[in-house]
């Protein structure tokens, strides 16, 4: 552990608190930096011009002069900074100029004095900072200084605490990273010094969470160090608060009862067609759920041949889940009764809570739920599905194609799109869950359950915000090591984010923060709804590649070019084919075909050419994934191609060789059937597009890379 | 016209030619700049240190010293530049240092002397240049100087000649454009001076096309001017050559005969199943072509009930088109005969030409074609379709869904994908044309024909390269004013471009050049194959919007957020809803729904709410386009939604109100049928995706904007 002088910081913060200030002065900032080993220029505070001259002469010219005032945060704007002061006369003159400027800028500003600062040698200006994000809590930021970060927004974020490796990844993670590596013969900046500075800032805000913002801007990065030239630190007691978090055990205990209930009650069950309480009953029954179903309705004795109870308290046995199909205003009372019954999960279908502005009612039900140790799903949801239990606790229609994909959505409309797509594609699903207003259960709880759920192989989530981004990031980082997590974050863009707030009352965070932190958590971020659905469908079917060497084998040179474009777009590496392998490929393809990569077997080749070259790619250990481009011809019709591909891939699977194979099919309408046949056999194939199959392979690779599953 | 001193440039170039040099010295560069009114710093050439001191004292300190040597182009690298020289002693010392450095860098370098240059005040470094692109010929480039252009490649291109307006669009067209507008209180750079400098460089290379490269780097852009600090000019006589171009009249005369032939001959027609010459015959006949069909085959008397001829010369009447279905080696002789017969177009299906490395054979047939005034389509193609004439001159299958979309592809595989997609989507097509090796007929010829073809409403082209990019850009600029031109440029990326060269022998140009120039030509660039096909299908169905005000009306808030994201991604503007319109919307939606934009009518609303709000959007003149988000409910099932939308849209169409309406449908599988129904009625609708409908609307807008069809 680094030896920090925490007491020095505490003293500064005590003074700031005593003064009722929310920011540190520059000298205070320097004390904090010194205490945490953050290098700053030699400097001193002068209260008159003689003192300023004396200080400047001590530290040596040139110097910088800066206003020191608790009331002036943007010094440059206030005319409060002069650089390149070369002699004593200039210092004296500068002192007077700055003081005058400050008085014009803010006549009421309390002026503490003028800071005289050593002027540093040339280097690259960078920004290092920490801030308190309302989704993720403490995060650190890094970017190039000056107009680059301001105009091009070339900046990157990580959750604090940030270790050295992460700090280095930040330095490499900006678009202009090359500048710090030294361009035009310039010496590279000292990456270690910058990384060290980032971790010190991260440690500082970790130790003192009331520091809401630490802004080192600029930091001068030279070949031999990194010095914080200007320091701005803000204090906010509320920045230290953290949301309530359940333990993993608590989450699993509740979620297991909710997802695999032995008994479900329907609060507001109804015999009347068209009522939500009727749809839920029907779906539970016709969906094939085999546990107990208890209709709760004071006015009925029987609903759908099930004995009805006036109140949940009347039910003889234990109840794990209560699905609410009653108006919002009746929810608090019913929730109390549900809690007293010892129910694990309240599935709140009704709307009329936070999403309509009724935050009080939502807060009230959360209070009741906590008190009775009931977890709430919703409110304002369509319900949820868990196919291994044949559970369709929803007012939509049942879904029964079992499989390994678990999906969740924050919006009902997106939930319906998930259901329709799944049914249309016959996608094997383990669960579809609506989280709606997320008054309680959120994506963390779902991730934790699905992590331990053997029926689930991949988790795909549509979300508009995260209640507790930090917890999500940490959970996703853990879960994604074993199962791919796909996230569609809506409200990505400024206009999108605006719509998000009007919809859920949730302020969407800066998208770059989401983007960096989701990536850091090993999440596959989907750019759109259809991408999320296609990744969910395809990624679990593909075996995990063992390395980065992708080979394109194509009958159509034109597809080869487009597939290559798609590889670059999706961060895939076209293998540089070794000479011996190239020779082997050439043995099977016509002399005017192109070996290399793409392997262009040319159009009009018989099935054997496809078969032989694909077999070569599967057999060669240096090849890790195959992308096939098919061109419809009379010699090799679509279904002949599809069947030979399945045959050769299965032959190698039998010998324990599992490589991801995707295919793009160009041809007349028969290619649609061929693509479906391939998909059913684990080869992710699409007609009329070179982009989609490569995007799914790219998603698989992004996950495998972050999960550390690729060799080398 | 600006008054340039062309003779001064001519004198310099004569000297360069006499010396056999391929570059200008710095003093020569300055003469050229002076002649074209390009501002450069005060400077002079010194051959000894005394002379250098004298020059420096004349122009005033500080000065810059630079090596002058025809053998040293990269001066900084050679240690040949010293800046900030402050007095006479430093000048003398600097002179010796630079000379010594240069001798170390290149002991054989001829050293002309040292250039002494006035050192300019602070400003933003930019780059202005002109180069000779092998696709587009003379192009001008603009970017920010230093690491920004080197590391971030933030640069933009235009075809030369470039007028003032285009030059200004370049200054605004870089990512970091804001920097020149003045950030952090800096004064803005003089945009007019930069634009002026760009046009002068453009004029210079226009007047002297043998200047293969003009590089002003850096140009110092200050609030009051733009001065070229360093000038590098390269000369290459070949840079002045331009490709052969047919006149518009020649193109139209030939293309009209080719696309609407009265008689077609099939060279190598065959009665034998499986032969290309048989497939072509069958497709001509069964496709319903009503002109004359002449099988040419020396060994047959009749093929498919048509009298066969031994040679095309034996055919009694005129022949407009000859489709070749014979091996490559027989093509030259047959082409001669075809030429002698006066055929307008030779459709060369056979492969075995440039694409297999046989460039000589390809050159030979082009020579024969030119001699006989035959235009060649291909070689190495699947043929072509023109549905208004029921013409399927191809070995694929006939296509008969008539409509306004004309498509072309450079690759046979992509052609098959076009055919399959079209058939699957029942897309109305006017033509599908394979251009293959483009030995002669290329996209220009097709564009020119389709421009005048009343059957064609939109042109979509897959291309890997352009033979004559300048001519394409100019043609596309003209055509796209009246008809949308969609281009899928393959080989976009480095890896993609590599595949392109191995496929067609065509070197794909720098993609940024393509991107800028295609945009400048009003072309809608499609990012991928599927996008090109969806744009082709959807864009002609949508009416042209009258302005930028897009309104989202959605039943699912979640879709609204994603649709907003998609709007930003596609450069669409969400209308800021005026208060009175907001009030009108609110009259129809529940109190907890969100007006604003998206208009969130909330789920569970009856058909009337959709109908009323959509009608409002159609009726209000300030709204220019609608994006609908549908959420499947029992209250408004998918087909009910689809029918009401068609009904209300058609009602307004009857009153002369035509606005583009697109829709995203979220729901169970019934939404697929609803989306198809909507599409058939001119509402571009998709299930399970929020991205695609907005992308198609975005494509329509991009075209309408460039074509100058939007008001305001």
UniProtKB/TrEMBL annotation, chains A, B:
Pfam families: ATP-grasp_5, CoA_binding_2, Ligase_CoA_2, Succ_CoA_lig
Domain called ATP-grasp: residue spans: 30-66
Iron-sulfur found in the keyword field: no
GO molecular function, one term: ligase activity
Keyword annotations: ATP-binding, Ligase, Nucleotide-binding
The protein, known as: Acetate--CoA ligase family protein
Organism whose genome encodes this protein: Kutzneria chonburiensis
Lineage of the species this protein comes from: Bacteria, Bacillati, Actinomycetota, Actinomycetes, Pseudonocardiales
């Amino acid at each position: 552990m680094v030896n920090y002088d925490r007491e020095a910081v505490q003293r500064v913060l005590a003074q700031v608190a005593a003064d009722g200030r929310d920011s540190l002065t520059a000298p205070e900032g320097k004390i904090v930096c010194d205490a945490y080993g953050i290098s700053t220029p030699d400097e001193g505070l002068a209260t008159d011009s003689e003192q300023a001259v004396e200080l400047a002469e001590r530290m040596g010219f040139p110097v910088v002069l800066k206003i020191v005032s608790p009331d002036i945060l943007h010094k440059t704007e206030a005319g409060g900074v002069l650089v390149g002061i070369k002699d004593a006369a200039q210092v004296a003159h500068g002192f007077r100029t700055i003081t005058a400027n400050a008085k014009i800028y803010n006549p009421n500003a309390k002026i503490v004095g003028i800071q005289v600062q050593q002027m540093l040698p040339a280097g690259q200006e960078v920004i290092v900072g920490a801030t308190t994000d309302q989704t993720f809590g403490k995060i650190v930021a890094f970017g190039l200084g000056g107009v680059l970060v301001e105009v091009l927004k070339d900046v990157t974020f990580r959750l604090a605490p940030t270790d050295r490796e992460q700090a280095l990844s930040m330095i490499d993670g900006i678009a202009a990273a090359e500048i710090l590596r030294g361009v035009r013969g310039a010496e590279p900046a000292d990456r270690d010094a910058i990384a060290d500075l980032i971790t010190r800032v991260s440690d500082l805000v970790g130790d003192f969470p009331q520091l809401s913002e630490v802004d080192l801007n600029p930091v001068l990065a030279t070949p031999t160090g990194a010095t914080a030239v200007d320091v701005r630190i803000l204090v906010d007691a509320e920045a230290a608060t953290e949301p309530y978090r359940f333990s993993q055990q608590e989450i699993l205990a509740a979620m297991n009862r909710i997802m695999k209930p032995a008994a479900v009650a329907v609060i507001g069950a109804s015999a009347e067609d068209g009522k939500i309480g009727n749809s839920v009953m029907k779906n539970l029954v016709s969906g094939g759920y085999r546990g107990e179903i208890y209709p709760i309705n004071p006015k009925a004795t029987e609903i759908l041949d099930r004995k009805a109870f006036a109140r949940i308290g009347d039910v003889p046995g234990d109840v794990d889940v209560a699905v609410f199909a009653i108006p919002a205003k009746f929810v608090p009372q019913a929730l109390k009764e549900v809690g007293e019954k010892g129910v694990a999960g309240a599935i709140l279908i009704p709307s009329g809570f936070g999403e309509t502005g009724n935050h009080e009612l939502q807060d009230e039900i959360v209070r009741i739920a906590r008190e009775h140790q009931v977890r709430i799903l919703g409110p304002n949801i369509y319900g949820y599905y868990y196919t291994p239990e044949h559970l369709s606790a929803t007012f939509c229609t049942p879904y029964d194609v079992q499989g390994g994909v678990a999906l969740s959505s924050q919006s009902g409309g997106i939930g319906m799109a998930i259901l329709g797509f799944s049914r249309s594609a016959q996608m094997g699903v383990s669960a579809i869950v609506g989280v709606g207003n997320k008054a309680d259960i959120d994506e963390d709880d779902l991730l934790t359950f699905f992590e331990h759920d053997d029926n689930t192989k991949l988790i795909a989530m549509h979300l508009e915000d995260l209640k507790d981004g930090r917890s999500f990031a940490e959970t996703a980082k853990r879960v994604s090591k074993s199962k791919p997590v796909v996230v569609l974050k809506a409200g990505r863009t400024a206009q999108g984010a605006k719509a998000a707030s009007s919809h859920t009352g949730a302020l969407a965070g800066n998208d770059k923060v989401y983007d960096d932190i989701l990536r850091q958590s090993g999440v596959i971020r989907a750019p759109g709804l259809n991408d999320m659905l296609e990744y969910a469908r395809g990624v679990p079917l593909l075996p995990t590649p063992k390395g980065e060497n992708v080979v394109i084998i194509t009958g159509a040179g034109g597809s080869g070019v487009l597939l290559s474009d798609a590889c670059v777009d999706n961060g895939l590496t076209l293998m540089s084919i070794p000479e011996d392998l190239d020779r082997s490929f050439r043995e099977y393809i016509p002399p005017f075909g192109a070996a290399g990569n793409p392997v262009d077997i040319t159009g009009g080749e018989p099935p054997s050419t496809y078969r032989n070259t694909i077999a070569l790619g599967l057999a060669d250990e240096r090849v890790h994934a195959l992308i096939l481009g098919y061109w419809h011809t009379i010699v090799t019709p679509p279904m002949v191609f599809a069947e030979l591909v399945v045959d050769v891939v299965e032959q190698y699977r039998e010998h324990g060789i599992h490589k991801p194979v995707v295919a793009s099919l160009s041809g007349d309408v028969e290619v649609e059937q061929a693509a479906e046949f391939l998909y059913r056999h684990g080869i992710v194939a699409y007609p009329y597009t070179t982009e989609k199959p490569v995007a799914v392979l790219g998603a698989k690779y992004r996950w495998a890379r972050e999960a550390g599953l690729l060799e080398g």
